[in-house]
Structure formats: C-alpha cells, structure tokens
Amino acid sequence: LEAQLGAQLLQRTTRTLSLTEAGEACYRHARRMREEAEAAALAATERHSEPVGLLRVASPQAFTDLHLVPVASRFLAAHPRLSLEFSEAPAHVDLIGERFDMAVRIGELPDSGLVARRLATSRALLVAAPHYVAGKGGFEAPDELTRAEALHVLPLQPGDVWRLMGPDGAVHPVHMPVRLAADSAAVVRAAALEGLGLSLLPDWMVGPDLASGALVQVLPGWGGAPVPVSALFPGHARISAKVRAFVDALTDAFAAGLYS
C-alpha cells in the first residue's frame, strides 16, 4: 500500500510500529469505508429488522448493576433471539476496535466521532448517614461543610476542593478535609453508610439509600452540576436493530429520571 500510494504509513523500529501522519489519515478514511461496508451488509439481512445475536455493551459497573440489569430483564424477555454482554470498559475504550456495539457513559463527552443519544440527566448529591449529620449538629450553609470529614471519589481536585452548584446555578468552591478517598464510588458509598463522613455521590447511586433513610441529603439544592447519561455507538449509515432496540428500551426506562 505504501508503494502504491508513494507515502510512508508506518514508522518502524525493531520493537514498535506506529502510524505516521499520512498513516493516521489513511486509517481514518479506511475505517469509515469499513463501517459503510458493514452497514451495507447489515441492511441486506434480516438482522437489520429483527434484534438477534450478541449485543456487547460497555458501561460503569455500578450503573450496570442498578439500572441496566433491570432493563435487561424486560428487554431479553421481549427479544428471545438476542443475548447481552456487559463489560466495565474504560471511558476511552475504542468501541470499534474492541468490538463493542455501544457504551453507556456518564458525564460530558469528548468529540469521538461516535453518535451520542442522551438517556437521562444525573447530578451528584451531598449525602451522609443520619447519625453522622446529627453528631455534627447539622449543616445550614456551604461554609459549614468544612466541619465535616469528606469521603471522596478519586481523583482529588487540586487543594481538596469540591465545586458545588447552588440553587441559583452558581458554582461555589468548598475546601474539604478529605478523611477517606477511593477510586470507586461504591467504596465511598459504603463508607458513607458506615457514618464515616460526608460524600458527593450521583443521584442514580444513592437514590435507594435516600428512599430507605439509610442516607440523608445534606443542604438540599446543593450538589454537583447536572451531567448527561448517554448512549454511544458508531455512526453507521444505518444502526443495527439490536443497538436501536436497546437504546430505545433505555430511553423509555429512564424517561421519568434515574432518581426522583
């Protein structure tokens, strides 16, 4: 191909191969050609009209447990020729290269060339165990939060700062003394349930705990900025029936919100 094009596409050493600038451009166009070819083949088969086969979905584990599995139960019952595979792939995973059909992502999305469809909106809430709040005498204003021990989901912001949005929509930085930090929101939630401190966790995760009274919301109206929950999938000319059906199922399931 290099001889035919008269351009070097790969940088070669004894140990590695990497794309040149020309190689990157060639790869982007070739990938789109492959996607169009796959879409053409898909359009010519019954797989476009009926969801069948394996649907591979990348999604955060906690979100899958709480929100995707309940939808999957009804979805699979409605589509007996379809099977589902969930994987906790990193946010930067190459869906096409790793052969995922779609992903569910929480937060603002970088420009990836993928099609994004918003499923719901989420917001982080300030929550703590009732006995922890009572032991601190309650909190009436954001500047009183510095009396609390923070339970934080890594990575930490510079200076241990929580950027909280108030009821007026303005963002206020609050310096929090961090008592416990973890790279898993599930670990931070468990610590909050134990009464170890105050946490800032997504509403879709702590909704059942607030409903049961295991956690209480601190400073209602304050929390993180709203972020989208989105379905991502490759931008084929025609979307496969299995992806379209599952995205539609998620949209219907989340129409009333992830937590009310």
Can you put this structure into words, describing what you see?
With 260 residues, this protein is an alpha/beta fold. It has seven helices and 14 strands. It has helices spanning 2-5, 21-43, 61-78, 130-135, 185-193, 203-212, 241-253; strands at 10-12, 17-19, 53-58, 82-87, 102-106, 115-122, 124-128, 150-153, 161-165, 171-175, 178-182, 198-202, 216-217, 227-233. The protein has a five-stranded mixed beta sheet with strand order 4-3-5-14-6, covered by helices on one side. Helix 3 (61-78) links the parallel strand 3 and strand 4. Helix 3 crosses helix 7. The longest helix has 23 residues, at 21-43. The chain is globular.
- H/E element order: HEEHEHEEEEHEEEEHEHEEH
Number of helices: 7
Helix content class = 25-40%
Q: Report the portion of residues in β strands.
A: 25-35%
**How is the main sheet built?**
5 strands, mixed
Strand order of the largest sheet: 4-3-5-14-6
- Could you report the average pLDDT, rounded to the nearest whole number? 89
Give the number of DSSP strands.
14
Q: What structural class is derived from the secondary structure elements? A: alpha/beta
Low-confidence stretches: none
Instruction: Return Rg in Å.
Output: 23 Å
The global form is globular
Distance between the termini: 57 Å
